[in-house]
Amino acid sequence: MATVMVRVDEKLKKEATDLFNSLGLDMSQAVRMFLIQAVETQSIPFEIKLNTKLK
């Protein structure tokens, strides 16, 4: 088993941990699910857009 280390803001980590816990997951399980979906779909498993605002 390999280890993946990611630096994130403390607030983001807490909010994500709380969300995942409410879903019955821990951080490792949630990240693993993301990676599995990325590999299975050969894509980022959500839409990515530029945040453009009209001036």
Provide a concise account of the structure shown:
With 55 residues, the protein is mainly α. The protein has two helices and no strands. The chain has a domain at 10-41.
What features would you describe in this structure?
This protein has 2 helices and no strands. 51% of the residues lie in helices and 0% in strands. The termini are far apart. The protein has 55 residues and is mostly helical. The protein has a domain at 10-41. The model has no long low-confidence stretch (mean pLDDT 94).
Quick tags:
55 residues, mainly alpha, 51% helix, RelB/DinJ, single chain, toxin-antitoxin system, extended, Type II toxin-antitoxin system RelB/DinJ family antitoxin, Arc_rbn_hlx_hlx
Distance N terminus to C terminus? 49 Å
Q: How helical, in percent, are the residues?
A: 40-55%
The tally of beta strands, per DSSP, is 0
Strand content: under 5%
Low-confidence stretches: none
What are the secondary-structure elements, in order, as H or E?
A: HH
Major sheet details: none
Q: In terms of structural class, how would the helical and strand content be classed?
A: mainly alpha
Q: How many whole angstroms does the radius of gyration measure? A: 14 Å
Global morphology: extended
Mean pLDDT: 94
Continuous helix count: 2
